[in-house]
Sequence to fold (409 residues):
Amino acid sequence: YKRQVSTQSTWGISLSNVRLFDFVVASGKEALELASTTTGPYRNRVLTKTPAISDELVEYYRNLDVSPEERAAVKLPSFNIHEYKEKENLGGQLSEYSDHIIPLLVELFTALDVMDAFHVDEATLLRFLIRVKSKYRNVPYHNFWHAADVMQTIYVLMTGEDIAKIPGPTEKLTLLLTALVHDLDHMGLNNSFHLKADTPMGILSAASDTPSVLEVHHCNLAIDILSEDATNVLGPLNPTDATHVYRWLVNCVLATDMGKHGQYVQQFRELSERVQEIRQQGKAWEATEPERLLVMQMLIKAVDISNIVKPFDIARLWAICVTEEFYTQGDLERSKGFEVANMFDRAKAELANGQVGFIDFVGKQYWGVVASLFQSMQWTVDNLNANREIWSTLASQRKVSIVKSPSRD
Fold:
């Protein structure tokens, strides 16, 4: 793997620093080790009696010295969460800087007025965020930093002028919570692996005819966290609003199953066409209840794959992380005698080509539909097209470098 990264560095996609390299490799190894336990009886379950979150820890996060510049930056599309992520395990002031992400997430809840609207106590929200963070594993991509990045991005989208008119306070709260919990306890292995490897979760899903193995697991854990008094940010809501949040949250998390991506894209396209017809008639679109849920699902699915629409320097780092996670699954599949798809095979897959392929077959279609409904999201399509051009150029340079390389025979 080190040799492969070194080769990539000659054509402009080297790791930005040693820390990121160490992180993706170490987390990949950890994911492989924990993944090897998923085939033994009951070893897939990680839930134990959760220790209480101390008042001291809550006060630590509350009193972190987060600068006004940081609070402003987290509300922008250009926010780079890797600046915090890469310092997580370095110790001292650097690790403390990494911890700023928790109060920055509180800042986003506050900025959307959901805390005041529902009288959510800051200490309860902090405990919720601390608990959520503890339920994510140290895998290369589907970790807490991905969840935090998804929440930051959903905040940015909800501040768009045309989108801001649709979600009410309850829906805004739902979207923020869903972004944070949508990948809880992800093991770095997709639904397909769990089903073909007969992991306990895969067996349960197959027996109950539910292909969304992970998404159901994420929902279960989210409900567990919200069932604790100390972390129940829905506690102040009236029963009707709380029920709405639970229902919407579950439906939005289930929508992130990429196995159902095609059917959701079709629904979103049909919604976009209906709205366009209404607007062409000079009328204002008043979203129905089912349409509001569909918009929420549309936005959650968008931010779940928003790494490809970030500025290239940020998108590149996410691409490295997700590719390493794919490779780790491919390594495990090969060790079990399973057929390994090319995108999971570190001997066949190639970073730039993989990103071009994902953008062409998934990203362009999806973000095009979403931006056709909400013009405030046009910047995502512009970034996507720019990133695609860069990845395409890098892929071409890679091919040229291989052709010019001397024979090793």
